[in-house]
Write a structure and sequence with these properties.
The structure is a single chain. The chain is mainly alpha-helical. It has helices at about 1-15, 15-40, 40-50, 50-85, 90-100, 110-120, 125-130, 150-175, 180-185, 190-220, 225-230, 235-245, 255-290. The chain starts with a helix and ends with a helix. Its main location: membrane.
Length: about 290
């Protein structure tokens, strides 16, 4: 009887097996074909000598680094606010504040990029407000923050959009910390700031650091925000790969495969680093929370 039930369950999924096999074969054959191009040294040398690749790599790394610094500052501020309010307000109000801090996470990155362009563009909300208040005489006097080479709007978008993810990851660990520790610390004259600095932050730091690495890997390989808010030169690696694929001849598809393979290898290396960090530092967090 049990054998018949198992067969019925398996039989229900056999209908989609051919499509899964075909899609998997096409997907992995494309990935393997891309990786094969890395060993084409003439093609690799051609990409490096052009200069576009190295400039895009440096630009992508700089944008990712600046974005992750901003994400780290904003998320740490949000974590500290939730820590201060955790014992000062009721659960309902605390959940409302937490949902407000996490709300940007539910907005798609493409929509978030459009919202940032509308907010800080030369004809956007802030520039219009400054013009109405008489702070600037012309809309063109407002600084160019969108579609410029420094990537200010890209960095601000990632700082606003990615910070809630770090807050969510850290907060789930922070709420496990025993509240009695704070009561004991107050007996010895320790205020809440020093308790957070000396006790809470060392415990949440491994999760905080791992979350930042996850965000960094995502930003490094992200396409939509730099494509929407960036410029034609310099370009991030994903945008460079897309433009070579979409606008140039089919002869350049090999270059696209190499660039995509390098992006995959770099993000995979970051993922391995994240795994090592979680494995080495995560055990420490569990031991501290069990005390």
């Amino acid at each position: 009887m049990n054998g018949m039930r198992k067969w019925q369950r398996v039989k229900e999924h056999l209908g989609i097996l051919p499509s899964i096999v075909v899609m998997s074969a096409l997907f992995w054959s494309g990935i393997l074909e891309s990786f094969k191009q890395i060993f084409n040294y003439k093609l690799l040398e051609k990409i490096i000598n052009k200069g576009d690749f190295l400039n895009s790599l440096a630009y992508t790394a700089r944008l990712s680094l600046c974005s992750i610094i901003l994400v780290g500052i904003i998320s740490l501020l949000g974590i500290y606010i939730l820590y201060l309010l955790s014992t000062e307000v009721g659960p309902a109000k605390l959940n409302g504040i937490k949902m407000f801090l996490l709300s940007p996470m539910y907005i798609p990155y493409l929509l978030g990029g459009y919202m940032m362009a509308i907010l800080i563009g030369q004809s956007g909300i802030i520039s219009t407000l400054c013009h109405r208040l008489g702070w600037i005489h012309k809309m063109t006097e407002f600084p160019v923050l969108v579609n410029e080479s420094h990537g200010y709007s890209i960095i601000l978008t990632y700082g606003w959009k990615a910070s809630p993810f770090v807050i969510l990851m850290v907060y789930s660990t922070m709420i496990k910390i025993n509240n009695e520790w704070l009561d004991v610390a107050k007996v010895y004259g320790v205020n809440r700031y020093h308790f957070f600095k000396e006790v809470v932050f060392p415990i949440i730091f491994p999760i905080y650091l791992s979350s930042l690495f996850v965000v960094f890997a995502h930003i490094f390989a992200s396409f939509e925000v730099p494509y929407l808010l960036g410029v034609t030169y310099p370009r991030t690696l994903p945008v460079l790969a897309y433009e070579k694929y979409a606008r140039n001849s089919i002869a350049n598809r090999g270059e696209v495969m190499v660039i995509n393979s390098i992006i995959i290898l770099l993000t995979a290396g970051m993922a391995l680093l994240i795994y090592k960090l979680n494995k080495s530092l995560g055990e420490r967090v569990e031991l501290e929370l069990e005390k």
